[in-house]
Specification:
47 residues; mainly alpha; globular
């Protein structure tokens, strides 16, 4: 999944589900936890 699509997917997951952690997001997106942390930083900086 391209990063831009993944960022939107992560935002959608965080809006619709509660109690998600990096491990669960990584599993849902098919990436590593480290990638999720980098993606969250990217989302935070874009705000």
């Amino acid at each position: 999944m391209p990063k831009s699509d993944r960022l939107l997917y992560i935002l959608n997951l965080l809006r619709t589900r509660r109690n998600l952690n990096a491990a669960r997001l990584a599993e849902e997106c098919g990436v590593t936890e480290r990638s999720i942390y980098r993606d969250i930083i990217s989302l935070s900086e874009a705000n």
